[in-house]
Design brief:
By secondary structure, the protein is an all-beta fold. The protein contains no helices and eleven strands. A hairpin with a 3-residue loop joins strand 10 (about 105-110) and strand 11 (about 115-125). This is Copper chaperone PCu(A)C.
Length: about 130
């Protein structure tokens, strides 16, 4: 079961990434972020030593079917942001190596108010 991570008024749950074979240079990561605070929060950036990380959302007109989000993702006060397959997600590209089933990749998420938090993403085949 995925670990629960807290950052300020945020609770992050269900963090996972798709496993990637040695010949794959990218994968995707997902997490649910709940904002228990009274003010909106924003996920500004994400980074990892294992890959270049981009915030992405679906866009049929964009190359690859998703566009990079430079303004961040808003998490409304009392609401949630679900990064999930087919929706907004984290793209991990230029992987430093394979991500086998059950591996863990650590991603730093930087929020506007809550600051930076390290989130462990366990790999699955979904």
């Amino acid at each position: 079961m995925a670990q629960e991570v807290h950052a300020g008024s945020l609770v992050l749950t269900g963090a996972w990434a798709r496993a990637a074979d040695a010949d794959q240079r990218l994968t995707f990561a997902f997490v649910t972020i709940r904002n228990r605070g009274g003010e909106a929060e924003r996920l500004m950036t994400a980074s990892s030593a294992a890959a270049v990380v981009e915030l992405r959302e679906p866009d049929a007109a964009a190359q690859g079917g998703a566009r990079v989000i430079t303004e961040g993702f808003v998490i409304p006060a009392g609401g949630l942001l679900a990064l999930e397959p087919g929706g907004a997600h984290l793209l991990l590209r230029d992987l430093q190596g394979p991500l086998a089933l059950g591996d863990e990749i650590r991603v730093l998420l930087r929020f506007e108010r809550a600051g930076t938090v390290v989130v462990p993403f366990r790999t699955h085949w979904h």
